[in-house]
Amino acid sequence: MDLTGEERIAASRDTVWKALNDPEILRACIPGCESLEKISDTELEATVGVKMGPVKARFSGKVELTNLNPPSSYTISGEGKGGVAGFAKGGADVTLTDEGAETVLAYVVNADVGGKIAQLGSRLIASTSKKLATQFFENFNAAVSGT
């Protein structure tokens, strides 16, 4: 499933780019993120707790930054294993453009789940994924713009 959207951020593109590459800011903005540690300039390890309907899962895995085109765009992708709950994988293509004193962050998010959590039904998974993606980008906007 793919989700698209954009956020207008009251900050320069360089400031937004630096924030997109800052593990502390990302950890604070990712809903349910318990830990996010930088392994290299393009790899991170994460642990995230997610509740989807009646299933609560804790996913651990790696996050990778690819297609780097500073300070304009990148792809962030990851895969996590949640034990008996199953797995989740996905990513986002993120593009930054200047618009006056603001930066427009456009995104295309894709997500896929498998195992027990996939049995919840595509409608619940889609709505939860959309909610989590929207929450992350709203949190990120607030963190970067200081609102």
Automatic annotation (TrEMBL):
Entries under Pfam families matching the protein: COXG (PF06240)
Supply the InterPro entries for this chain. Answer: CO_DH_gsu, START-like_dom_sf
Name of the protein in question: Carbon monoxide dehydrogenase subunit G
Which organism encodes this protein? Answer: Phyllobacterium bourgognense
Taxonomic lineage from the root: Bacteria, Pseudomonadati, Pseudomonadota, Alphaproteobacteria, Hyphomicrobiales
